[in-house]
Design a protein that fits this description.
homodimer, NADH Oxidase, globular
Amino acid sequence: MEFFDVVRTRRSVRSFKAEPVPDEVLGKVLEAVRIAPSGSNRQPWRFIVVKNEAVKQKLIPACGDQKWLAEAPVIVVACGQIFDWNRGSYMGEHSVLVDVSIGMTHLILGARNEGLGTCWIGFFDNAEVKKVLGVPEGWNVVGVTPLGYPKAGEKAFTEPGPRKQLSEIVSADKF
Amino acid sequence: MEFFDVVRTRRSVRSFKAEPVPDEVLGKVLEAVRIAPSGSNRQPWRFIVVKNEAVKQKLIPACGDQKWLAEAPVIVVACGQIFDWNRGSYMGEHSVLVDVSIGMTHLILGARNEGLGTCWIGFFDNAEVKKVLGVPEGWNVVGVTPLGYPKAGEKAFTEPGPRKQLSEIVSADKF
Protein backbone atom coordinates (compact mmCIF):
# COMPACT_ATOMS: atom_id res chain seq x y z
CA MET A 1 0.00 0.00 0.00
CA GLU A 2 0.97 3.63 -0.42
CA PHE A 3 2.56 4.99 2.76
CA PHE A 4 -0.05 7.66 3.42
CA ASP A 5 -2.89 5.19 2.83
CA VAL A 6 -1.39 2.96 5.52
CA VAL A 7 -1.18 5.87 7.99
CA ARG A 8 -4.63 7.21 7.10
CA THR A 9 -6.42 3.88 7.48
CA ARG A 10 -4.70 2.43 10.54
CA ARG A 11 -7.30 1.95 13.22
CA SER A 12 -7.35 0.29 16.62
CA VAL A 13 -9.04 -3.08 16.14
CA ARG A 14 -10.67 -4.89 19.05
CA SER A 15 -12.50 -7.77 17.34
CA PHE A 16 -10.77 -10.48 15.37
CA LYS A 17 -11.41 -13.51 13.17
CA ALA A 18 -10.05 -16.82 14.43
CA GLU A 19 -8.08 -17.13 11.15
CA PRO A 20 -4.40 -17.61 11.92
CA VAL A 21 -1.76 -15.20 10.63
CA PRO A 22 0.41 -17.03 8.06
CA ASP A 23 4.09 -17.19 9.03
CA GLU A 24 5.06 -15.45 5.81
CA VAL A 25 2.82 -12.47 6.61
CA LEU A 26 3.99 -12.31 10.22
CA GLY A 27 7.57 -12.45 8.93
CA LYS A 28 7.01 -9.37 6.75
CA VAL A 29 5.61 -7.41 9.68
CA LEU A 30 8.51 -8.43 11.94
CA GLU A 31 10.98 -7.47 9.22
CA ALA A 32 9.58 -3.93 9.33
CA VAL A 33 10.39 -3.99 13.06
CA ARG A 34 13.82 -5.52 12.60
CA ILE A 35 15.04 -2.70 10.35
CA ALA A 36 13.55 0.07 12.49
CA PRO A 37 15.96 2.74 13.73
CA SER A 38 17.01 3.08 17.36
CA GLY A 39 19.39 5.37 19.27
CA SER A 40 23.00 4.53 18.33
CA ASN A 41 21.51 1.49 16.50
CA ARG A 42 21.29 -0.32 19.87
CA GLN A 43 18.14 -2.25 18.91
CA PRO A 44 17.39 -2.73 22.63
CA TRP A 45 14.23 -4.70 21.98
CA ARG A 46 12.63 -8.11 22.08
CA PHE A 47 9.23 -8.85 20.54
CA ILE A 48 7.53 -11.86 22.08
CA VAL A 49 5.02 -13.44 19.72
CA VAL A 50 2.40 -15.27 21.77
CA LYS A 51 0.19 -17.79 19.96
CA ASN A 52 -0.12 -20.43 22.69
CA GLU A 53 -3.67 -20.34 24.08
CA ALA A 54 -2.66 -21.03 27.69
CA VAL A 55 -0.08 -18.23 27.63
CA LYS A 56 -2.58 -15.84 26.04
CA GLN A 57 -5.05 -16.62 28.82
CA LYS A 58 -2.39 -15.89 31.45
CA LEU A 59 -1.71 -12.51 29.86
CA ILE A 60 -5.33 -11.36 30.22
CA PRO A 61 -5.29 -10.65 34.00
CA ALA A 62 -1.88 -9.00 33.57
CA CYS A 63 -3.46 -6.67 30.99
CA GLY A 64 -6.29 -5.18 33.04
CA ASP A 65 -8.52 -8.20 32.41
CA GLN A 66 -9.16 -7.17 28.82
CA LYS A 67 -10.59 -10.51 27.73
CA TRP A 68 -11.16 -9.47 24.10
CA LEU A 69 -7.36 -9.56 23.63
CA ALA A 70 -7.39 -13.36 23.50
CA GLU A 71 -9.71 -13.31 20.49
CA ALA A 72 -6.72 -12.44 18.30
CA PRO A 73 -4.65 -15.40 17.12
CA VAL A 74 -1.49 -13.56 18.15
CA ILE A 75 -0.55 -11.22 20.98
CA VAL A 76 2.76 -9.37 20.62
CA VAL A 77 4.55 -8.14 23.73
CA ALA A 78 7.26 -5.55 23.08
CA CYS A 79 10.08 -5.44 25.64
CA GLY A 80 12.96 -3.02 26.06
CA GLN A 81 16.37 -3.53 27.62
CA ILE A 82 17.42 -0.77 29.99
CA PHE A 83 20.72 0.78 28.93
CA ASP A 84 23.00 3.32 30.45
CA TRP A 85 22.06 6.51 28.69
CA ASN A 86 20.18 9.53 29.90
CA ARG A 87 18.36 10.61 26.75
CA GLY A 88 17.51 14.30 26.75
CA SER A 89 19.39 14.56 30.06
CA TYR A 90 16.27 13.48 31.97
CA MET A 91 14.84 10.16 30.76
CA GLY A 92 17.21 7.89 32.65
CA GLU A 93 16.26 4.22 32.43
CA HIS A 94 13.09 5.24 30.61
CA SER A 95 15.25 6.21 27.60
CA VAL A 96 14.49 2.81 26.08
CA LEU A 97 10.77 3.63 25.87
CA VAL A 98 11.58 5.81 22.88
CA ASP A 99 13.39 3.04 20.98
CA VAL A 100 10.80 0.35 21.60
CA SER A 101 8.00 2.74 20.66
CA ILE A 102 9.67 3.25 17.28
CA GLY A 103 9.83 -0.51 16.69
CA MET A 104 6.25 -0.95 17.86
CA THR A 105 5.05 1.80 15.51
CA HIS A 106 6.74 -0.01 12.62
CA LEU A 107 4.90 -3.16 13.70
CA ILE A 108 1.51 -1.42 13.90
CA LEU A 109 1.90 0.21 10.49
CA GLY A 110 3.42 -2.89 8.90
CA ALA A 111 0.48 -4.91 10.18
CA ARG A 112 -2.01 -2.49 8.62
CA ASN A 113 -0.13 -2.80 5.33
CA GLU A 114 -0.82 -6.55 5.47
CA GLY A 115 -4.51 -6.15 6.35
CA LEU A 116 -3.89 -7.05 10.01
CA GLY A 117 -5.48 -5.22 12.91
CA THR A 118 -3.68 -4.17 16.09
CA CYS A 119 -4.47 -2.16 19.21
CA TRP A 120 -1.62 -0.69 21.24
CA ILE A 121 -2.32 -1.54 24.88
CA GLY A 122 -0.75 0.61 27.60
CA PHE A 123 -2.98 -0.71 30.39
CA PHE A 124 -0.92 -3.64 31.67
CA ASP A 125 1.10 -4.49 34.74
CA ASN A 126 4.78 -4.66 33.84
CA ALA A 127 5.69 -6.96 36.74
CA GLU A 128 2.82 -9.36 36.00
CA VAL A 129 3.48 -9.59 32.26
CA LYS A 130 7.19 -10.13 32.97
CA LYS A 131 6.32 -13.00 35.29
CA VAL A 132 4.05 -14.69 32.73
CA LEU A 133 6.64 -14.49 29.94
CA GLY A 134 9.85 -14.88 31.93
CA VAL A 135 11.18 -11.44 31.05
CA PRO A 136 14.48 -11.05 32.93
CA GLU A 137 15.69 -8.25 35.18
CA GLY A 138 17.00 -5.29 33.22
CA TRP A 139 14.10 -5.51 30.78
CA ASN A 140 10.66 -3.92 30.89
CA VAL A 141 7.48 -4.37 28.91
CA VAL A 142 6.74 -1.26 26.82
CA GLY A 143 3.60 -2.24 24.94
CA VAL A 144 1.24 -5.08 24.12
CA THR A 145 -0.91 -5.56 21.05
CA PRO A 146 -3.23 -8.20 19.64
CA LEU A 147 -2.56 -9.04 15.99
CA GLY A 148 -5.04 -10.64 13.65
CA TYR A 149 -7.50 -10.18 10.81
CA PRO A 150 -10.32 -7.84 11.87
CA LYS A 151 -13.74 -9.43 12.17
CA ALA A 152 -15.09 -6.55 10.08
CA GLY A 153 -12.57 -7.23 7.30
CA GLU A 154 -11.21 -4.26 5.32
CA LYS A 155 -14.14 -2.19 6.58
CA ALA A 156 -12.30 -2.00 9.91
CA PHE A 157 -9.74 0.27 8.30
CA THR A 158 -11.37 3.65 7.96
CA GLU A 159 -10.34 7.24 8.55
CA PRO A 160 -8.92 7.95 12.01
CA GLY A 161 -11.15 9.23 14.80
CA PRO A 162 -11.31 12.90 15.77
CA ARG A 163 -7.98 14.68 15.99
CA LYS A 164 -6.77 18.11 17.05
CA GLN A 165 -6.25 20.64 14.27
CA LEU A 166 -2.72 21.21 12.96
CA SER A 167 -2.79 24.69 14.51
CA GLU A 168 -3.19 23.08 17.94
CA ILE A 169 -0.22 20.75 17.63
CA VAL A 170 2.26 22.69 15.50
CA SER A 171 3.91 26.03 16.18
CA ALA A 172 6.65 28.05 14.50
CA ASP A 173 10.04 28.81 16.09
CA LYS A 174 8.70 28.72 19.64
CA PHE A 175 6.22 26.73 21.75
CA MET B 1 5.84 5.26 -2.12
CA GLU B 2 5.01 1.71 -1.08
CA PHE B 3 5.02 1.36 2.71
CA PHE B 4 7.82 -1.20 2.88
CA ASP B 5 9.98 0.85 0.50
CA VAL B 6 9.64 3.80 2.86
CA VAL B 7 10.69 1.69 5.85
CA ARG B 8 13.50 -0.04 3.98
CA THR B 9 15.08 3.15 2.65
CA ARG B 10 14.75 5.45 5.64
CA ARG B 11 18.22 6.47 6.72
CA SER B 12 19.62 8.97 9.19
CA VAL B 13 20.72 11.98 7.15
CA ARG B 14 23.31 14.41 8.48
CA SER B 15 24.08 16.61 5.46
CA PHE B 16 21.50 18.79 3.77
CA LYS B 17 20.94 21.06 0.78
CA ALA B 18 20.06 24.68 1.57
CA GLU B 19 16.87 24.23 -0.52
CA PRO B 20 13.84 25.11 1.61
CA VAL B 21 11.06 22.62 2.26
CA PRO B 22 7.90 23.83 0.48
CA ASP B 23 4.99 24.48 2.85
CA GLU B 24 2.84 22.01 0.95
CA VAL B 25 5.37 19.21 1.48
CA LEU B 26 5.87 20.09 5.14
CA GLY B 27 2.10 20.10 5.52
CA LYS B 28 1.84 16.53 4.22
CA VAL B 29 4.47 15.33 6.67
CA LEU B 30 2.77 17.10 9.59
CA GLU B 31 -0.56 15.60 8.56
CA ALA B 32 0.96 12.13 9.02
CA VAL B 33 1.82 13.25 12.55
CA ARG B 34 -1.57 14.80 13.23
CA ILE B 35 -3.45 11.57 12.55
CA ALA B 36 -1.02 9.37 14.50
CA PRO B 37 -2.50 7.29 17.31
CA SER B 38 -1.87 7.98 21.00
CA GLY B 39 -3.05 6.47 24.27
CA SER B 40 -6.77 7.24 24.77
CA ASN B 41 -6.40 9.57 21.76
CA ARG B 42 -4.87 12.21 24.09
CA GLN B 43 -2.56 13.61 21.39
CA PRO B 44 -0.32 15.02 24.14
CA TRP B 45 2.13 16.55 21.72
CA ARG B 46 3.39 19.76 20.19
CA PHE B 47 5.77 19.83 17.23
CA ILE B 48 7.79 23.04 17.02
CA VAL B 49 8.95 23.79 13.49
CA VAL B 50 12.08 25.92 13.65
CA LYS B 51 13.15 27.72 10.46
CA ASN B 52 14.43 30.97 11.98
CA GLU B 53 18.24 31.05 11.68
CA ALA B 54 18.82 32.73 15.04
CA VAL B 55 16.65 30.19 16.85
CA LYS B 56 18.37 27.30 15.05
CA GLN B 57 21.74 28.62 16.18
CA LYS B 58 20.51 28.81 19.79
CA LEU B 59 19.41 25.18 19.62
CA ILE B 60 22.91 23.95 18.68
CA PRO B 61 24.52 24.29 22.14
CA ALA B 62 21.37 22.77 23.69
CA CYS B 63 21.84 19.74 21.40
CA GLY B 64 25.36 18.69 22.35
CA ASP B 65 26.92 21.29 20.05
CA GLN B 66 26.01 19.30 16.95
CA LYS B 67 26.64 22.15 14.49
CA TRP B 68 25.63 20.13 11.42
CA LEU B 69 22.01 20.32 12.60
CA ALA B 70 21.76 23.93 11.47
CA GLU B 71 22.56 22.94 7.88
CA ALA B 72 18.99 21.69 7.51
CA PRO B 73 16.43 24.37 6.57
CA VAL B 74 14.12 23.06 9.30
CA ILE B 75 14.64 21.63 12.78
CA VAL B 76 11.62 19.97 14.38
CA VAL B 77 11.41 19.73 18.17
CA ALA B 78 8.84 17.22 19.45
CA CYS B 79 7.40 17.98 22.90
CA GLY B 80 5.14 15.95 25.15
CA GLN B 81 2.70 17.05 27.82
CA ILE B 82 2.93 15.11 31.04
CA PHE B 83 -0.40 13.53 31.94
CA ASP B 84 -1.65 11.64 34.92
CA TRP B 85 -1.38 8.04 33.85
CA ASN B 86 1.05 5.34 34.90
CA ARG B 87 1.39 3.34 31.68
CA GLY B 88 2.40 -0.25 32.30
CA SER B 89 2.13 0.49 36.03
CA TYR B 90 5.70 1.86 36.05
CA MET B 91 6.27 4.64 33.51
CA GLY B 92 4.81 7.47 35.57
CA GLU B 93 5.34 10.89 34.00
CA HIS B 94 7.46 9.22 31.32
CA SER B 95 4.29 7.62 29.92
CA VAL B 96 4.13 10.44 27.38
CA LEU B 97 7.43 9.35 25.81
CA VAL B 98 5.55 6.50 24.16
CA ASP B 99 2.95 8.75 22.55
CA VAL B 100 5.37 11.36 21.28
CA SER B 101 7.64 8.64 19.88
CA ILE B 102 4.72 7.35 17.82
CA GLY B 103 4.09 10.82 16.40
CA MET B 104 7.81 11.33 15.75
CA THR B 105 8.04 7.98 13.92
CA HIS B 106 5.18 9.06 11.68
CA LEU B 107 7.10 12.26 10.99
CA ILE B 108 10.35 10.44 10.18
CA LEU B 109 8.63 7.97 7.82
CA GLY B 110 6.39 10.63 6.28
CA ALA B 111 9.47 12.74 5.58
CA ARG B 112 11.18 9.84 3.80
CA ASN B 113 8.08 9.37 1.70
CA GLU B 114 8.53 12.98 0.53
CA GLY B 115 12.26 12.59 -0.18
CA LEU B 116 13.21 14.47 2.98
CA GLY B 117 16.01 13.40 5.30
CA THR B 118 15.79 13.35 9.10
CA CYS B 119 17.96 12.21 11.99
CA TRP B 120 16.34 11.50 15.36
CA ILE B 121 18.50 13.26 17.98
CA GLY B 122 18.38 12.01 21.58
CA PHE B 123 21.50 13.89 22.68
CA PHE B 124 20.01 17.17 23.89
CA ASP B 125 19.45 18.94 27.17
CA ASN B 126 15.74 19.09 27.92
CA ALA B 127 16.01 22.14 30.20
CA GLU B 128 18.15 24.07 27.70
CA VAL B 129 15.94 23.33 24.69
CA LYS B 130 12.87 24.26 26.73
CA LYS B 131 14.48 27.59 27.61
CA VAL B 132 15.31 28.39 23.96
CA LEU B 133 11.80 27.61 22.72
CA GLY B 134 9.73 28.73 25.70
CA VAL B 135 8.36 25.26 26.44
CA PRO B 136 6.21 25.61 29.57
CA GLU B 137 6.26 23.60 32.78
CA GLY B 138 4.44 20.28 32.46
CA TRP B 139 5.97 19.67 29.04
CA ASN B 140 9.22 17.96 28.09
CA VAL B 141 11.22 17.65 24.90
CA VAL B 142 11.17 14.07 23.61
CA GLY B 143 13.14 14.31 20.39
CA VAL B 144 14.74 16.67 17.91
CA THR B 145 15.33 16.18 14.20
CA PRO B 146 16.67 18.19 11.29
CA LEU B 147 14.45 18.07 8.20
CA GLY B 148 15.59 18.83 4.69
CA TYR B 149 16.61 17.48 1.31
CA PRO B 150 19.76 15.34 1.63
CA LYS B 151 22.88 16.75 0.00
CA ALA B 152 23.37 13.32 -1.60
CA GLY B 153 19.87 13.40 -3.10
CA GLU B 154 17.98 10.11 -3.44
CA LYS B 155 21.30 8.26 -3.05
CA ALA B 156 21.08 9.09 0.66
CA PHE B 157 18.20 6.63 0.97
CA THR B 158 19.73 3.19 0.88
CA GLU B 159 19.28 -0.05 2.80
CA PRO B 160 19.55 0.29 6.57
CA GLY B 161 22.83 -0.32 8.36
CA PRO B 162 23.60 -3.60 10.13
CA ARG B 163 20.78 -5.05 12.21
CA LYS B 164 20.35 -7.98 14.55
CA GLN B 165 18.85 -11.13 13.06
CA LEU B 166 15.16 -11.83 13.60
CA SER B 167 16.10 -14.75 15.84
CA GLU B 168 17.84 -12.30 18.20
CA ILE B 169 14.88 -9.97 18.58
CA VAL B 170 11.85 -12.27 18.31
CA SER B 171 10.85 -15.19 20.49
CA ALA B 172 7.77 -17.42 20.75
CA ASP B 173 5.46 -17.52 23.79
CA LYS B 174 8.19 -16.56 26.27
CA PHE B 175 11.16 -14.23 26.47
